[in-house]
Amino acid sequence: MTMPKEVTDAVLKVMQEVGYIKKASTNEFHNYKYASIEAVLEKVQPALVKCGLTITQSEVSHAIIADGALMEAVYEFTLSANGTQSAAIRQTGLASLRNTKGGYDDKALNKCHTAARKYFILGVFQIPTGLAEDPDAEEDKPKNKGAGNNQPQEDTGLAAAKAFVRRSVKEIGALTSATALAEWKAKMDGHLARLMERYPDEGAAVMSALMAQAQSFKAAAE
Length: 222
Prior knowledge:
The chain is of the alpha+beta class and 222 residues long. It has one domain. The protein is built from seven helices and six strands. Strands 3, 4, 5 and 6 form a four-stranded antiparallel β-sheet that branches. Strands 1-2 form a two-stranded antiparallel ribbon. Strand 1 and strand 2 form a beta hairpin. The radius of gyration is 19 Å and the shape is globular. The relative contact order is 0.15. About 15% of the residues have low confidence.
């Protein structure tokens, strides 16, 4: 999608101002590090003011999907600079409707709003957050094949993430009911959360497969 020059120039300036955001927060339940929305806004908000760029977020729709397991909300974001506004950019936020005790999470829609805003900002400004040290990090390091080997190594973490996506999409496609989909999602929540933090594009691919399958089950039930 093409943006107006005024908006594009402002976005580039924000990118220069923001730079890197460290993953300083920790999810104690699933034991992984992530860049919190507070950390993202702490870096981005002053840059937006300095560069004269504003972001508007508006909800388009929300729905309970995956047999009551997920809340899905769709938002439109617009960027404005010097009186010029971009076309609307859509971003979906997903959140579990169940808390760790199995009850309904009444903050699920708020979490969708926060998740969509966070990933929109990270995506539109191409903000790197780095790779946190977690149990996967050691597995993801390329093996040292000798001190004299200076050949570039493949990002095995990304390769593993892509393999996980392929496997997950295949498993999701083989599910035969909304209940089975919800059970698969609950079982994989920790992995999906880590994937979304470390490799947002790959995480989004799995989430898209989940949403598509949930919609197909919903359509079949109607």
